[in-house]
Amino acid sequence: MNEMRLISYEALPATPWKNGGGVTRELCSYPATASFDQFIWRVSIADVTQSGPFSSFPGVDRVITLLQGEGMQLLSANGDRTLLTPLQAHRFRGEEQISAQLEGVACLDFNLMLRRGAATGSVDIWHADQDLAHGCNLLFCLQGRWDVLTAGGEQVSLEPRQSLVCEQKLGQLSLRSLQAGSIVISVNINLL
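The structure assignment produced for this chain is given below.
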Protein backbone atom coordinates (compact mmCIF):
# COMPACT_ATOMS: atom_id res chain seq x y z
CA MET A 1 0.00 0.00 0.00
CA ASN A 2 1.28 3.46 -0.91
CA GLU A 3 -0.55 5.81 1.45
CA MET A 4 -0.04 9.53 1.57
CA ARG A 5 0.62 10.94 5.04
CA LEU A 6 0.23 14.53 6.15
CA ILE A 7 2.82 15.43 8.81
CA SER A 8 3.17 18.57 10.90
CA TYR A 9 6.76 19.67 11.55
CA GLU A 10 5.91 20.61 15.15
CA ALA A 11 4.77 17.01 15.84
CA LEU A 12 8.13 15.50 14.84
CA PRO A 13 10.55 14.53 17.61
CA ALA A 14 13.92 16.30 17.68
CA THR A 15 16.73 13.74 17.58
CA PRO A 16 20.48 14.36 17.98
CA TRP A 17 22.66 14.57 14.90
CA LYS A 18 24.89 11.60 14.21
CA ASN A 19 27.85 13.61 15.61
CA GLY A 20 25.82 15.08 18.50
CA GLY A 21 26.35 18.66 17.34
CA GLY A 22 22.69 19.61 16.92
CA VAL A 23 19.21 18.24 16.37
CA THR A 24 17.17 17.15 13.36
CA ARG A 25 13.57 16.21 12.66
CA GLU A 26 13.05 13.38 10.17
CA LEU A 27 10.20 13.94 7.73
CA CYS A 28 10.54 10.55 6.05
CA SER A 29 13.04 7.80 5.37
CA TYR A 30 13.14 4.58 3.39
CA PRO A 31 12.97 1.96 4.69
CA ALA A 32 10.94 3.57 7.47
CA THR A 33 12.78 1.93 10.37
CA ALA A 34 16.30 2.22 8.95
CA SER A 35 19.16 3.58 11.09
CA PHE A 36 21.61 6.32 10.02
CA ASP A 37 23.79 3.61 8.47
CA GLN A 38 21.04 1.67 6.69
CA PHE A 39 18.60 4.11 5.03
CA ILE A 40 18.29 4.20 1.23
CA TRP A 41 17.01 7.77 1.40
CA ARG A 42 16.14 10.23 4.14
CA VAL A 43 14.58 13.69 4.31
CA SER A 44 14.95 15.83 7.43
CA ILE A 45 15.06 19.40 8.72
CA ALA A 46 17.96 20.41 10.96
CA ASP A 47 18.30 23.21 13.50
CA VAL A 48 21.77 24.73 13.14
CA THR A 49 22.29 26.90 16.22
CA GLN A 50 26.08 27.10 16.17
CA SER A 51 29.00 26.73 13.78
CA GLY A 52 30.68 23.33 13.64
CA PRO A 53 31.32 20.16 11.63
CA PHE A 54 28.75 18.23 9.64
CA SER A 55 28.18 14.58 10.52
CA SER A 56 30.03 12.13 8.27
CA PHE A 57 27.87 9.94 6.02
CA PRO A 58 30.23 7.84 3.85
CA GLY A 59 28.58 6.57 0.65
CA VAL A 60 25.72 9.09 0.89
CA ASP A 61 25.02 11.96 -1.51
CA ARG A 62 23.50 14.98 0.22
CA VAL A 63 21.44 17.94 -0.91
CA ILE A 64 21.09 20.77 1.63
CA THR A 65 18.78 23.78 1.25
CA LEU A 66 18.75 26.68 3.68
CA LEU A 67 15.18 27.44 4.79
CA GLN A 68 15.76 30.17 7.37
CA GLY A 69 18.75 32.22 8.46
CA GLU A 70 21.11 34.80 7.02
CA GLY A 71 23.40 32.27 5.41
CA MET A 72 25.85 29.49 6.15
CA GLN A 73 29.40 29.20 4.86
CA LEU A 74 30.43 25.58 4.11
CA LEU A 75 34.16 25.01 4.53
CA SER A 76 35.69 21.83 3.13
CA ALA A 77 38.90 20.18 4.31
CA ASN A 78 40.62 21.16 1.01
CA GLY A 79 39.83 24.85 1.57
CA ASP A 80 36.81 25.23 -0.73
CA ARG A 81 34.12 27.62 0.51
CA THR A 82 30.45 27.67 -0.47
CA LEU A 83 27.99 30.23 0.83
CA LEU A 84 24.52 28.79 1.27
CA THR A 85 21.80 31.36 0.83
CA PRO A 86 18.08 30.73 1.39
CA LEU A 87 16.35 28.37 -1.04
CA GLN A 88 19.46 27.43 -3.05
CA ALA A 89 19.98 23.65 -3.08
CA HIS A 90 23.61 22.54 -2.69
CA ARG A 91 24.80 18.99 -3.41
CA PHE A 92 27.86 17.34 -1.79
CA ARG A 93 29.24 13.94 -0.79
CA GLY A 94 28.52 12.79 2.76
CA GLU A 95 32.09 11.63 3.39
CA GLU A 96 33.52 15.11 2.74
CA GLN A 97 34.83 16.82 5.85
CA ILE A 98 32.61 19.91 5.91
CA SER A 99 32.27 22.54 8.63
CA ALA A 100 29.50 25.12 8.74
CA GLN A 101 30.12 28.74 9.73
CA LEU A 102 26.91 30.64 10.44
CA GLU A 103 26.69 34.10 8.88
CA GLY A 104 24.47 35.40 11.69
CA VAL A 105 21.55 33.92 13.56
CA ALA A 106 20.70 30.23 13.79
CA CYS A 107 19.59 28.49 10.58
CA LEU A 108 17.05 25.89 9.62
CA ASP A 109 18.01 23.62 6.73
CA PHE A 110 16.27 21.00 4.62
CA ASN A 111 18.28 17.83 3.96
CA LEU A 112 17.94 15.08 1.37
CA MET A 113 20.29 12.12 1.82
CA LEU A 114 20.63 9.41 -0.83
CA ARG A 115 22.59 6.17 -0.50
CA ARG A 116 24.98 6.27 -3.45
CA GLY A 117 24.34 3.43 -5.89
CA ALA A 118 20.87 2.76 -4.43
CA ALA A 119 18.99 6.01 -5.10
CA THR A 120 19.21 9.36 -6.87
CA GLY A 121 17.07 12.39 -6.25
CA SER A 122 16.45 16.09 -6.50
CA VAL A 123 15.03 19.00 -4.52
CA ASP A 124 12.93 21.65 -6.29
CA ILE A 125 11.49 24.88 -4.89
CA TRP A 126 8.19 26.17 -6.32
CA HIS A 127 6.79 29.70 -5.91
CA ALA A 128 3.80 29.37 -8.26
CA ASP A 129 1.30 26.79 -9.53
CA GLN A 130 3.03 23.74 -10.91
CA ASP A 131 2.08 20.45 -12.56
CA LEU A 132 4.43 17.60 -11.65
CA ALA A 133 3.88 15.12 -14.48
CA HIS A 134 6.09 12.48 -12.86
CA GLY A 135 4.99 13.14 -9.28
CA CYS A 136 7.28 13.24 -6.26
CA ASN A 137 7.90 11.49 -2.93
CA LEU A 138 7.52 14.44 -0.58
CA LEU A 139 6.16 17.98 -0.47
CA PHE A 140 7.03 20.46 2.29
CA CYS A 141 5.13 23.74 2.58
CA LEU A 142 7.61 26.38 3.69
CA GLN A 143 5.19 29.28 3.61
CA GLY A 144 1.69 30.15 2.45
CA ARG A 145 -0.91 27.53 1.62
CA TRP A 146 -1.15 25.02 -1.21
CA ASP A 147 -3.74 22.65 -2.62
CA VAL A 148 -2.30 19.39 -3.90
CA LEU A 149 -4.44 17.53 -6.46
CA THR A 150 -3.68 13.94 -7.45
CA ALA A 151 -4.44 12.35 -10.83
CA GLY A 152 -6.96 10.17 -8.96
CA GLY A 153 -8.94 13.21 -7.83
CA GLU A 154 -7.76 13.41 -4.22
CA GLN A 155 -7.15 16.87 -2.81
CA VAL A 156 -4.96 17.72 0.18
CA SER A 157 -4.31 21.20 1.56
CA LEU A 158 -0.84 22.02 2.89
CA GLU A 159 -0.33 24.66 5.58
CA PRO A 160 3.06 26.14 6.57
CA ARG A 161 5.52 23.54 7.91
CA GLN A 162 3.38 20.60 6.86
CA SER A 163 4.63 17.75 4.68
CA LEU A 164 2.84 15.34 2.41
CA VAL A 165 4.95 12.18 2.23
CA CYS A 166 4.91 8.80 0.56
CA GLU A 167 7.61 6.10 0.45
CA GLN A 168 6.82 5.43 -3.18
CA LYS A 169 6.19 8.23 -5.63
CA LEU A 170 2.98 10.20 -5.48
CA GLY A 171 1.84 10.02 -9.13
CA GLN A 172 1.02 13.01 -11.29
CA LEU A 173 0.31 16.03 -9.08
CA SER A 174 -0.97 19.57 -9.52
CA LEU A 175 0.22 22.17 -7.00
CA ARG A 176 -2.00 25.23 -6.62
CA SER A 177 -0.87 28.21 -4.55
CA LEU A 178 -3.67 29.64 -2.40
CA GLN A 179 -1.97 32.93 -1.52
CA ALA A 180 0.79 35.25 -2.68
CA GLY A 181 4.28 34.45 -1.44
CA SER A 182 3.65 30.71 -1.06
CA ILE A 183 6.67 28.38 -1.29
CA VAL A 184 6.62 24.58 -1.48
CA ILE A 185 9.57 22.18 -1.77
CA SER A 186 9.28 18.91 -3.69
CA VAL A 187 11.57 15.91 -3.37
CA ASN A 188 11.79 13.42 -6.21
CA ILE A 189 13.62 10.12 -5.58
CA ASN A 190 14.48 7.31 -7.98
CA LEU A 191 15.50 3.91 -6.63
CA LEU A 192 18.23 2.24 -8.69
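Interim note for the steering committee: The chain has no helices and 19 strands. The chain has two domains: 11-118, 121-191.
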